[in-house]
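Sample entry (361 residues):
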Amino acid sequence: MAKFHSLTVSNIRKETDDCVSISFNIPDNLKEEFRFIQGQYVTLKMNIEGEELRRSYSLCSSPIAENDFRIASKKVSNGKVSNFLFERLKVGDSLEVMTPMGNFYSKLDPSHSKNYLLFAGGSGITPVFSIIKTVLNVEKDSTIKLFFGNKDESSVIFKEALNDLEKKHSGRFGVYHIFEKPQKPYSPDLTGLLTREKTEELLSKHVEMDKPQECFICGPLPMMNNIKDTLEKFQVPKESIHIEYFTTVLEDIARAEKVEIQNNIPETISNVTVILDGSETTFKIKSTGKSILDTCIDNDLDVPFACKGAVCCTCKAKIISGKVTMDMNYALTSHEVTMGYILTCQSHPQSENVTVSYDEI
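Predicted structure, serialized as tokens:
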């Protein structure tokens, strides 16, 4: 089960006028727990002005190519945590950091010879940058093309590092910067937003779509939907399209993915047993009441969670027995759902007895 540990900030680097990257020192006794896979994220737990806040941030460092454990945070308007990290955090400070989680990756193998097609928008470059550096280091015969959308040249996170990688790995790694409002004359096909039409134009001009592609997408929701739809139009298999939803996209989501939902189920009261760190606790929960996660929190169980919005996967647990439904799911794969995993922030019991374990993830 994912747990919080106190980590010391070892470095803070300004990436753009509104983005910093933050590196943490990992003590020797925690190195195994904080081992991560390219594309994963961590959750920070902070107390700001008496309020406990949790936010998830993707790791931008590579677990293979670098000896670094680094996240990036872009300051957002009225963002309590992002503004604190940008303006007040100092080297030497300690933060509560949860061990790494996330499924935004594919298995790498030195024998692979793949064509990776990556799309990022704004701070969506963070996990994608980790993937780029790791693939280039592990799969010497694989190629990568990155389409990176930003407002203008000054807003490009990791700009110099991406340029250096492109020079170092010429022929294997190419970057296409797409600017909404470029500050100087710029190529028309690389100007504008990543709409369906723009994405189709870019793929037709710059990508050999008859070759198999492993695709990763991270950025604003409309951009991700446009790209996903276009890739499917080009007949890229759905299992080859990986999408990372940031918590902030939830407000834009109009349609929830329903998982095993049955309409008009009468209200029942279930005995729900929660297994956490080897201990069992049983609650009575209404099928139409609070989620399993919220019930645990109300009863002072220290269960893992972050976004509470079906995106981050931090509250993942496994059904040992019984039946539950989830309101939304943007984090678990269909295979994980088949294996019995649930997002407890979205889960409600639907049988007389339910047992859920946080220890079997």
